[in-house]
Design a protein that fits this description.
mainly beta, Lipocalin, eight-stranded antiparallel β-barrel, 44% strand
Length: 143
Amino acid sequence: MKIFSILLLLFTTSLTVFSQKQDAIVGQWVNATGEAHIDIFKKGEKYFGKIVWLKDPNDEKGKPKTDYKNPDPALTPRPTLGLEILKNFKYEDGKWKGGKIYDPKTGKTYSCTITPKGTNLISIRGYIGISLIGRSENWKRIK
């Protein structure tokens, strides 16, 4: 019975550690240019991110910026602030994979992986097709 209790404790501890690693991405991050803060959150078993702060939230006319570059005309009036730009990431092999990143500056969506670079830094790699052809940038955690 004592061995069973020890094994159960070890199993529970390892699940907690695994959960902490996969949820390490949850929180607010500033993009590489400092123009936006992105809140990464978990829904079910997947991770998503939305813009929660913009350095310049309004356009030149003083109106809130919208998703005007979106290829779907029905989506162009939606505000940039609050826009979900990270979708459907799963934690796998120490990275968040299988998701998409949307760039509101271009209206384009890319496949994406997110790799931890320490406690307060992540590398975002957007690409088309294979990850060798793409672009990376580092985001810092907002404390």
